[in-house]
Amino acid sequence: MFRSFLPVLLIVYVASAYFIITEPTRNTQWKNNAVNLVSWQKGALDGIDSFDIEFARLAVDGNLFAAKDVPSSQTSLNFMLQDVPAGDDYYVLLINSTHGVIHAVSSRFTILDSSDSSAPTGQAPFQDAPTVTVSGRPNPTQEFATTFPARVGVSNGATGGWNEGSWRRQLVAVGATVFTSLLGVVLRTML
Questions:
Q1: How far apart are CA 17 and CA 138, in angstroms?
Q2: Coil, helix or strand for 180?
Q3: For the chain, how many structural domains are there in total?
């Protein structure tokens, strides 16, 4: 009986610790020379103050570096695409590019050429969200299209530590880890 609850507990813990990308979805089509929406929900127990947004494509090596140091309080950004290669194999990554930690990956979506007569799908851009212009092909030497201003005492998770703003979240995370470890030991002895 207890064995069936452990995966649920772990999934709930992991899901609350990161992000969920709500847009683009699987059938979303973005269009070049148009503004397109990326939106997400943030977990409660993560201790992440900022992150980066990149666009990855399966058929081509390299990522498009879109936005660096996005404040975690932000829940959406608009992206104006210019001359981004068309394809049906794109993903949005919410990532800590300093450490290479991926916080979330979107569903696969399509980017259409500006001359394509198909109407783009997906949610309309948010008026209150900043707009970032991304252009060109993936290029490993390219810099981020935009960098958000650094907040005092906050980094992209590079320093970590037990600062005043995050000690409670980190204490809860450590407690949850200890709890799940102890629960695993108890379940192993019972079975």
A1: 30
A2: helix
A3: 1
Residue 174 lies in a domain: no
Q: Is 39 in contact with 22 (CB distance < 8 Å)?
A: yes
Give the residues across from 67 on adjacent strands. 53, 146
**Both structure tokens of 189:** 């002895």
- CATH at residue 72: 2.60.40
Q: What is the extent of the structural domain holding 90?
A: 19-147
pTM across the whole model: 0.69
pLDDT tens, the chain, 191 aa long:
444 444 443 444 444 457 899 999 998 999 999 999 999 998 765 678 899 999 998 888 779 999 999 998 899 999 999 999 999 999 999 998 888 888 899 999 999 998 887 766 667 777 889 999 999 988 878 899 999 987 655 444 444 444 444 555 555 566 566 666 666 666 667 66
